[in-house]
Write a structure and sequence with these properties.
Number of strands: 7
Distance between the termini: 38 Å
Number of helices: 9
Largest sheet: 5 strands, mixed
Order of helices and strands: EHEEEHEHHHHEEHHH
Structural class: alpha/beta
């Protein structure tokens, strides 16, 4: 629905911005989390501007879109092009339809700045081509063995919680061990229960709310 027909934005598409313009691994991590998440990816559009590439992920729910920022590159040997190739191989393996669209610098900047519009989404959906430039985007080194190693690494590290402080331009990340977080919360819960200090209980809520918090990390 166009903006002028929905003055309060009640039917606007829910747009999420993930990945990073500065770190290809963030793009890979966030794509794989979406790939193996509860919401099935319906389509992936590669947004190309020269050697820089962002992604638009569409899901079964038409009111939800994820943009992966342009930390993906091509045209030279390196981690950026390997990341681009890896994501394409993973999408193909999962039978996700892939499109590509050459975009302008202003459109890519809006995506990287978390400022894409509803009209941008409509434009991308309508103009994406059902073919991609394999010669540019897919490196031969990213073969089945390479893909499997990446999948194994993701599964090994899936219990890491990525905490990112995000502004409009970039993301900074710190990794926190899930096991350590759960242990810390359990220790807090035990200490509060033993102390029976009403002020502490008031500050942190009752024991059941703390247990619920712990369970949310499981």
């Amino acid at each position: 629905m166009l903006f002028e027909d929905d003055p309060l934005g009640l039917y606007s598409t829910d747009i999420k911005y993930e990945g990073s313009t500065r770190d290809t691994q963030y793009c890979i991590d966030d794509f794989m989390k979406r790939l193996y998440g509860i919401h099935k990816i319906k389509e992936m559009t590669i947004l190309t501007h020269g050697q820089y590439h962002a992604l638009m992920l569409s899901f079964e729910s038409d009111d939800f879109i994820v943009f992966i920022k342009s930390g993906l590159t091509s045209g030279y040997p390196g981690e950026g092009p390997k990341g681009t190739s890896l994501i394409i191989r993973l999408a193909e393996e999962a039978n996700i339809p892939i499109k590509e669209l050459n975009v302008t610098a202003p459109l890519l900047k809006r995506i990287n700045s978390s400022l894409a519009t509803q009209k941008d989404i409509v434009f991308i959906k309508s103009k994406g081509k059902e073919s991609i430039n394999y010669d540019q985007l897919c490196l031969e080194i990213v073969n089945k063995e390479y893909v499997q190693r990446a999948k194994d690494s993701f599964k090994k590290n899936k219990d890491i919680i990525f905490v990112r402080a995000e502004n409009e331009k970039t993301k900074d990340a710190a990794e926190i061990s899930r096991t350590k977080v759960i242990k810390m919360l359990q220790e807090i819960h035990e200490a509060i229960t033993k102390s029976k200090n009403t002020k502490i209980l008031s500050d942190f809520g009752n024991a059941s709310s703390i247990l619920s918090l712990i369970k949310s990390f499981l």
